[in-house]
């Protein structure tokens, strides 16, 4: 018997994905550069399904049925590149190579083109959900040629997470880099969601002086509301956790320097190029960056920069209501962050000529991935209802939620500013909302400045055309129509 799918790279993610495939009726060829991992997988989990272990790449390729289909699960960058080339050399036209890592979508586009020239289908596939997800059901975002989906569809559907309604969390996102693009934005949204939750924690901790255990209970409660999500759930778990060695709350023994592997940065860089304002995601990336500016932070502690000792000014009776305000502010900001992320997907699709069903994207994020949440049902419903015009925020449900949260949201941002608690994502989301609402933006002034110092021209509100004013030093200005 030959394998209908192969996996290259058997570290945590690859091994988990292979087991998931085997457990769900696939015959899985497995290969790892150092063969002890292959042997270990077979020894420990060989009875979970049908595996065909291989110790050379040739052996591996020969054990695959045609069209040969292989998922590469090695480190992004050079190791992935090397395996793509090696496999391509052994493959025939019609065979399929899948890159299951977090690869930059432009690299995927380049590779698909290269492989297409050799007749090989190349599929960049975003896979979310970590090791647990890979084993028990990830959310999968495959791009690549439409034709490859005929073979991949049933295999991926057999292993993907199932949403509440039973539908598998995978869909063919679009051609070439579309899958990795959508996974990239998923991660950007993940960054924003995590930052918003972190700011909520800070407001409750330093603002209200609550203990990690008390805050954990609050997040447990919030998880029963419209905020219900995996990230809220694990936030409560982290905050409940006590460090065994010291007996201290675990949160207090973790270094407050947030690291990142680059997908959030790509999301923002790509958004800048498109351009689409994803301010919440940008603030989340910058907040991690600031947390790692150790030298500056230490210097700030030495000659403490003036300002209030972080707190939120409230009477005891007001504290309860403020906790609710933070919950509303978190929900409203989350709506903005997701709306911005979906804007980026929509604009990316336009620019790169992909047909992406945004409702389907929301649907496959309902389970398996890191940002899985009840909330995504709302987004898919909104897209499916056809009620969305140019942004998610105009959908009646989200519009109403933003309106209802508004007073709380403003109160939280104002109190945070007065009490010296940084809330970059909360405040940027609120400013985005207010900017979008504004009938006139001060952008008019910027156009005036640009025209004065650089003759960059401006448009007029009262007639079409492109104008430049001859800014004279004597104050005698003349308007000139340039085009
Ligand atoms: C997922 C995650 C995953 C990534 C983490 C960590 O969807 O399963 O996004 O792909 O490893 O998000 O990313 P950072 O190290 O950049 O925080």
Describe this structure in words.
With 483 residues, the protein is α/β, with parallel strands linked by helices. It is 55% helix and 8% strand. It is built from 19 helices and nine strands. The chain has helices at 12-23, 35-45, 57-62, 78-90, 105-117, 130-136, 148-159, 178-207, 212-222, 230-240, 263-273, 279-291, 294-302, 316-352, 358-364, 375-385, 396-419, 424-437, 443-454, and strands at residues 5-8, 27-31, 50-53, 69-72, 96-99, 121-128, 139-142, 467-470, 478-481. The strands form two sheets. The chain has a seven-stranded mixed β-sheet with strand order 3-2-1-4-5-6-7, with helices on both faces. It has a two-stranded antiparallel ribbon with strand order 8-9. Helix 1 (12-23) links the parallel strand 1 (5-8) and strand 2. Helix 8 crosses helix 11. The protein is globular, with a radius of gyration of 26 Å. The mean pLDDT is 96. The protein binds 6-phosphogluconic acid. 6-phosphogluconic acid is lined by residues 102, 128-130, 187, 190, 260-261, 263-264, 369-370. The site of 6-phosphogluconic acid (6PG) has 12 residues, from helix 8 and helix 11.
Poorly predicted segments: none
Biggest β-sheet, characterized? 7 strands, mixed
Q: Order of strands side by side in the largest beta sheet?
A: 3-2-1-4-5-6-7
Number of strands: 9
Can you give keywords for this protein?
single chain; 483 residues; alpha/beta; seven-stranded mixed β-sheet; two-stranded antiparallel sheet; 19 helices; binds 6-phosphogluconic acid
């Amino acid at each position: 018997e030959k394998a209908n799918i192969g996996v290259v790279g058997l570290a945590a993610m690859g091994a988990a994905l292979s087991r998931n495939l085997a457990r769900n009726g696939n015959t899985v060829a497995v290969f790892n550069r150092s063969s002890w991992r292959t042997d270990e997988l077979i020894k420990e989990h060989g009875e979970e399904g049908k595996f065909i272990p291989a110790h050379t790449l040739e052996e591996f390729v020969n054990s695959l049925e045609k069209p040969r289909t292989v998922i590469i699960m090695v480190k992004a960058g050079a190791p992935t590149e090397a395996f793509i080339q090696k496999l391509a050399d052994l493959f025939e036209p019609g065979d399929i190579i899948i890159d299951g890592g977090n690869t930059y979508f432009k690299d995927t586009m380049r590779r698909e083109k290269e492989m297409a020239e050799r007749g090989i289908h190349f599929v960049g596939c975003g896979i979310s959900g970590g090791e647990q997800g890979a084993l028990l059901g990830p959310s999968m975002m495959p791009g690549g040629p439409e034709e490859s989906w005929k073979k991949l569809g049933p295999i991926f559907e057999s292993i993907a997470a199932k949403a509440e309604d039973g539908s598998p969390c995978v869909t063919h996102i679009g051609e070439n880099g579309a899958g990795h693009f959508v996974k990239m934005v998923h991660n950007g949204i993940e960054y924003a969601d995590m930052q918003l939750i972190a700011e909520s924690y800070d407001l409750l901790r330093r603002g209200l002086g609550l203990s990690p255990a008390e805050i954990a209970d609050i997040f447990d409660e919030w998880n029963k509301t419209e905020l219900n999500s995996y990230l809220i759930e694990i936030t409560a778990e982290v905050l409940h956790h006590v460090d065994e060695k010291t007996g201290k709350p675990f949160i207090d023994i973790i270094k407050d320097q947030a690291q990142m592997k680059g997908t959030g940065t790509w999301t923002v860089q790509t958004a800048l190029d498109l351009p689409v304002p994803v301010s919440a995601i940008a603030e989340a990336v910058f907040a991690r960056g600031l947390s790692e500016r150790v030298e500056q932070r230490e210097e700030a502690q030495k000659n403490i920069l003036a300002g209030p000792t972080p707190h939120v000014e409230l009477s005891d009776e007001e504290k309860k209501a403020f906790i609710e305000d933070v919950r509303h502010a978190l929900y409203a900001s989350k709506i903005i962050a997701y709306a911005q992320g979906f804007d980026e997907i929509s604009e990316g699709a336009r620019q790169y000529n992909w047909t992406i069903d945004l409702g389907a994207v929301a649907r496959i994020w309902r389970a398996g991935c890191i940002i899985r949440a009840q909330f995504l049902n709302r987004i898919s419903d909104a897209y499916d209802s056809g009620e969305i015009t140019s942004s998610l925020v105009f959908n009646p449900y989200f519009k109403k939620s933003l309106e209802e949260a508004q007073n709380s949201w403003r109160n939280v941002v104002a109190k945070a500013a007065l009490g010296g608690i940084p809330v970059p994502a909360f405040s940027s989301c609120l400013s985005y909302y207010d900017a979008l609402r504004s009938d006139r933006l001060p952008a008019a002034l910027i156009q005036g400045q640009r025209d004065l110092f650089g003759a960059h021209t401006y448009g007029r509100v009262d007639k079409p055309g492109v104008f430049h004013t001859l800014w004279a030093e004597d104050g005698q200005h003349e308007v000139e129509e340039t085009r």
